[in-house]
Amino acid sequence: MPPISPSVSEELRKRLQQARADLLDAVRARTGQQDDEAPAIGPLAHLGQGDDAPQSEMLSHNEARLAEHESSLLHEIDVAIGKLAAGGAGICESCGRDIPEARLLATPTVRLCIGCQEQREQDQHSGRGPSM
Ligand SMILES: [Zn+2]
Fold first, then answer.
1. Per residue in 14-38, pLDDT tens?
2. Which CATH class is domain 6-38+56-125?
3. pLDDT by residue (tens digit) across 84-123?
4. For the chain, N or C: smaller number of CB within 10 Å?
5. If you measure from the C-alpha of residue 59 to the centroid of ligand 1, how many angstroms do you get, rounded to a whole number?
6. What distance in angstroms lies between residue 117's CA and the mean position of ligand 1's atoms?
7. Could you tell me the residue ranges of all domains in the chain?
8. Cα dist. 108→43, 45, 74, 78 in Å?
């Protein structure tokens, strides 16, 4: 028996795919704007490459900058979509218990139950420990 009902699963799939499309649109729009606003004096200017400055290098530089936050979010979305397709959505990755559907609907990319989420945040706030 699946941990979440088919209707909730379908709703989550829709939201995740919408979030994915929105994210890619935002990245594309920002990339285009950055191309227009490309500053004449940038981090590469001091290299003195002049006309030979490779365009591809600047492009990848822009992509790297905007990907910091968005690529990790995109990864979260892809993982959540994959889990939905595999039937593993709605199960806490840490303790294996069911994640409440309301929590899933509020945050479709959620991977932990509330208890494990709080535990993890406490661990992060209290430091990583002296040694492993
Ligand atoms: Zn848990």
1. 999 999 999 999 888 877 765 555 4
2. mainly alpha
3. 999 889 999 999 999 999 999 999 999 999 999 999 999 9
4. N
5. 41
6. 7
7. 6-38+56-125
8. 38, 43, 12, 11
